[in-house]
UniProtKB/TrEMBL annotation:
Protein known as: Lipoprotein
Biased composition (Low complexity): 28-40
Residues of the signal peptide: 1-20
Chain residue ranges for the region called Disordered: 20-57, 210-272
Keywords associated with the record: Signal
Annotated source species: Streptomyces aquilus
């Protein structure tokens, strides 16, 4: 059913030892009398170091602890610009590996947007953007038993991320600890052109604490979509609501001024 969009320098001073001459004990020190030794800079402690068994003991971890680990272990397609796939990393001594594997769900969701027709439903508009409805459906799910013992890549579903995707269709990738996401854990709102986090990622609010990471691919032109999610015009002919002129003085809005700067006019004596 459609719902509404919206990571000391220790200095050792060793006193020089003099010979048996008493006067030399109180004289000026020789250049070799004082030594300065720098200790090696300690390496940072990895967040999940391995123990004597060669793994990091995660027995009894809470959901929150598992989520925090998965956040470090997984790279979303935008983060993994080398291939564009989703990748589970393997960094021995840094990510573990873990002694006990964690069940992770990788799910791809199709979002179909349509402009709200105003007949009902909650309003998301802030007065500058139109309201959109979206329908969300799971397209692909991959269950991963993750422990960082080896790398694994998961390809994106081509049908959902194709270049010729409908301008009314968006995609949502979720990485969740435990079981697949339930409908009551999905976001109520997925805004178009909404706020972004410090990584320039579109913000999505889930109703679950099990979501370790996500990535939203917005529809390219929801402003041309009918309430049922079908394009009704060429996106090139209908600019997005936030589009503004880039030319501060477009010639079709403001006529070019016509002034005559005649030197004789400027220097001419006033007419009596």
């Amino acid at each position: 059913m459609p719902v509404v969009a919206a990571l000391s320098l220790a200095v050792l001073f060793s006193a020089g030892c003099s010979g048996g001459d008493d006067t030399s004990a109180y004289g000026e020190p020789t250049p070799s009398a004082t030594e300065v030794t720098e200790s090696p800079t300690p390496s940072p402690t990895p967040p999940y170091p391995t123990d004597a068994s060669g793994c990091h003991d995660n027995k009894g971890w809470t959901t929150a602890e598992s989520v925090d680990w998965v956040k470090l272990d997984v790279d979303t397609p935008k983060q993994n610009s080398g291939s564009g796939d989703l990748e589970f990393s393997s960094i021995p001594g840094y990510l573990g590996p873990l002694c006990h594997k964690i069940t992770v769900q990788v799910e791809f969701w199709k979002l179909v947007y349509g402009v709200a027709d105003g007949d009902g439903g909650e309003s998301l508009s802030d007065g500058t953007r139109p309201d959109y409805y979206f329908d969300i459906r799971r397209v692909k799910r991959v269950e991963v038993r993750a422990d960082a013992a080896g790398e694994r890549r998961i390809a994106l579903p081509k049908s959902l991320y194709s270049d010729d995707r409908s301008p009314c269709v968006g995609a949502l990738l979720t990485i969740t600890v435990g079981k697949p996401l339930k409908s009551k854990e999905l976001p109520k709102e997925v805004e178009v052109g909404g706020s972004q986090d410090v990584w320039d990622r579109e913000t999505v609010e889930f109703r679950s604490e099990r979501v370790a990471d996500y990535e939203l691919s917005e529809p390219s032109a929801p402003q041309v979509c009918s309430p049922d999610g079908r394009p009704t015009a060429d996106p090139a002919d209908v600019p997005p609501p936030s589009a503004e002129p880039t030319d501060l003085f477009p010639t079709d809005l403001y006529p070019s001024p016509s002034y005559s700067w005649d030197l004789d006019d400027i220097l001419r004596s006033p007419t009596p």
